[in-house]
Amino acid sequence: MKAIRTIHRTLLLGACVLLAGGAGAADKKELPPRPSVADILKTSKPTDWRALDPDNTLYMEMPWGRVVIEMSPVFAPNHVRNIKALARSGYYDGLAIVRVQDNWVVQWADPKDETPDARPVKGAQKTLKAEFTVPMANDKHFTRLSDVDGYAPQVGHSDGFPVGRDPKTGETWLAHCYGMVAVARDNDADSGGGTALYAVLGPARHLDRNLTVVGRVISGMPQLAALPRGPMPMGFYDKPGMNVPITSVKVAADVPLAERSKFEVMRTESAVYQAVLDAQRNRGGSFTKYSAGYLDLCAAPIPVREQP
Fold this sequence. Notes:
Distance between the termini: 83 Å
Strand order of the largest sheet: 14-4-5-12-11-13-3-2-15
Largest sheet: 9 strands, antiparallel
Oligomer: single chain
Number of helices: 5
CATH topology of the domain at 53-263: Cyclophilin
CATH superfamily of the domain at 53-263: Cyclophilin-like
Strand content: 15-25%
Number of strands: 17
C-alpha cells in the first residue's frame, strides 16, 4: 500500500509540473503578426471607394452639427422615395429626437404626433406597405460572408450595407446593425411610412424582417449615441424640454455643392474589403492571445472616409 501511495504522489507531482509548465507556455504564446485593418486601408486605391449618391443621402442638421444618412432604394424603394418627399416638403424641419433607449435605438419624430396639433403630411404618404424584405434579384452587389449566422441562412454586404438573405424564399433584407436607420411603426406591419425614424444603438438582429430598414448613419452616430437616455418606458423623454431639436433634414442633392459633405464608403465587393474582413476575423499581433477565426455580420467594419 505504501508503494502505491508513493507512485500516486509521484504521478500527481509530475502532473502538476506539466500543468504549470503548460500554463506558462500558454501565457507566453503570441499569435503570428498579421496586418491590421489600418494597415490594409493604407493599401487601398481610389477605385476601392465610392462617393455617396447625393440623391439618396440625407443631411439631418442638429444643434451640434450634421448627421449624414445614406439610404438604400434597392432594399426599400417606396420608403426611400417617401422619406425624400417628406424631407423636400419640410416635414422634418423643427421636429425632434423624442426617444433614446439604452443599447437599443434613438428615434426622431413629431412630438405632437397623434394629437390635434400633429404636423400634417404634405406631398408624401403617412403610411406605406411594409418593405421588410425584397426579392434577391433586386440586389446586384451582394458579397457573401463565409461565417455562419443565427438570423439568416446567408449574410454579407451589398454596396456598403449589412445584408441577410434566404435563397429558399428568394428574399433579402438590410440587417439591424449599429447605426442602421429604420422606419418606426405600430403593431400593424403597414403602419409606418417614414414620419418617425430610428437609428440602432446596439445590434438588434431579431428585428430583421419585422421593420423596414432604409439605410445607415455614415457620420454623426457618436453624437446620437451620447444623448441622454429617456426615463419613460422604451426610452421616451417625459418632458418637452428633453426633446433634442432637429434644425432641418435635406436631401444632399438639394444642398449647394460647396456645402455638401464629401464622404466615401469602401466598396464591399472589393478585394481590399475582403482583406479587411479577414483581418477582423483572424486577429494577430502581440495583444491578441486567442483569435476566434469568426466574424459576426454586425462586427464587420465598413470603412468610411471624408475627403477634404
